[in-house]
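Researcher: Next sequence.
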Amino acid sequence: MKALNHALELKPDDWLCSYFIAEVKHCMGLFEDAIDILSDIRQLRPDEAGPLILLGQSHLDLGLSQVADGFQIRSEESFLASIEVALDVIKRMAGFRTIAWKMIGDSAHHLSCFSVFVKEKDVRSLLSSIHYLPPPDWADHIAKVIVLPTFHEDTPISGTTVATVAIHSYLSQISLSSTGQLSGQSTWYDLGVALQSWVLKAPPTIGDLTLLKEKVVEAFKKALQTDAGNDMYWVALGNAYFLTHPKAAQHAYIKAIEIDSKNAATWANLGLLYFYHGDVELANEALYRAQVLDPDNTVAWVGQYLIATMNNDKTDATLLLEHAVGLTKPVVSLPLLKD
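Model: Next structure:
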């Protein structure tokens, strides 16, 4: 930072130096500082791809940090800003459309987790302005069941509708990508997560959920074909198998642990899998391992509370739950496909 600031002092009109400073600030987690710098560059050089893409990513990362801190209104604005920048990239820079579609999909996916929208008019206006590309041939069934989203003025925006935006954004990204490009991206994983989110939010009247669940598993398997060493992909596959195929879920979680044995969240997921399917002893061992690796892992403490409750140990159960509630890390819900 000192070197870059000194370079900027020597040549204050060098936008490239300002861009590098913004990039460093983004890497440091100073997203708001990066956004201020990149917004100034955008006004001066609106057709520069690098600053515009980093601006959109900075808005997205800022939104994620605001969600983690509990600032939903601010995060909503940040995700919308990221989508707005991504749409500008699509309009100006044809060579960077795949990156922009991923940015739209990621932002829409995180927005779909909100139960209500404070600035619903802005959300409706921006999301309704997106023009998607035709989906690839293999996704015809997905496109028939999950039709393009519509936004009516007199109807509140639902999480399912916004999740639909994410799915069609990822399908647009896949439509633009060659097989070689897909092998180096997280596109299949992103699509699987978005489909999973949609299935969880979908009304029970939808008749083709079974096939969509198969598409979720298929997407995660394709992600693993491109990068079998990514433990996050194995965990996602384990979550998809959690309720209906416990042995397959166990295999997926263990593969993830073999890749990263110090990931407390994976151990906690494995513990909950054992508990759900009735193996309390193995559940306790896995949850204990998660607590050793990360004493503040809320899910592990909640899992121990469930075990104590099942054993009718009310005193320990109360203490465990009180401890879990007092932790700073929130309890995250596992994205498990419904039976």
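Model: The mean pLDDT is 90. The radius of gyration is 22 Å.
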